[in-house]
Amino acid sequence: MNWSQQNQWGLGPMTTSVAATPPAPARAAAPPAVFDVTEAAFEAEVLERSMTTPVLLDCWAPWCGPCRSLGPILEKLAQAANGRFVLATLNTDEAPNIAAAMRLRSIPLVALFVGGRVVDQFVGALPEGQIRQFLDKHLPPAGQGPGAGAEAPPDAEALRQEAAEFAKQGGDPAEVEAILQEALSLDPAHLPSLLDLTDLWLQRGETAAAQELLDGVPQDKRNDRHAALVKRIALMANRPPGDPAALTARIAANARDFEARHALAALLVWQGDWAAAFEQLLEVVLRDRAEGKPDRDKARVQMVEWLASCPDTALVDTSRRKLAMYLN
Questions:
Q1: 22 belongs to a structural domain
Q2: For the chain, which has fewer Cβ within 10 Å, the N-terminal or C-terminal residue?
């Protein structure tokens, strides 16, 4: 809301009695530096507008005490910004869908949109000096005009790396998927993002959707990772024969029952338990002492093939080292 229009009692605009004066000549009004935004107008007034002018979004609510102290500071900075940014104020009580989409947990929350997406945000009523520092990190110096020097929208590879880092930190898979989808909306042919999204869908067991993504990649663009994902889908789609409990019992009774270990490893890969599958094959490599070591060689070949399809790079590195050690 426009805090400068509220009097100290919250009863609306303050007025004074003045003599009537002739109206000033009409002229084109400059876009306001501060404005309220609704859910219906959010896409146009925040996302689309931020493609040309950075938009600072103030998420507040009428019952929020810190919001009332922060709002006037933000308005003051926006009015003096000379086009560096505009301030949009969002009453979160009246915009539950936007609040949910932004995963608001606490207010006031202030988010800076550039190029149609959030580039930074903070929570709480910061002092004016810290807010200026926050803005100066992302906005051009005063006097350079609207949007000049603002952060450029990220490209597909930057978004893909952001998604990977977020996933590495244990972020919500749905948010990881949203970032990858955004990358593909910028560049539908960006193969690394497409393969990352395929991998994510396979982790959720969505093999049909993942296969459709892979089938859409032109033949001349398909690489080793594409081939590995195709093999992984084949592994997931075809359940190997055998009962895991019965195979486990056989191995418990005879640790050198290599047939049971191979069969159990195949079932474990189908279930997505790559680590346990590799352990079964490594046990075969370690224990086979027969002449020519046929089971050991069979386990080695199978493990090399599965390592190329395993999505867990850390597990792949560890298992490769173990395999090399056991073979020496």
A1: no
A2: C
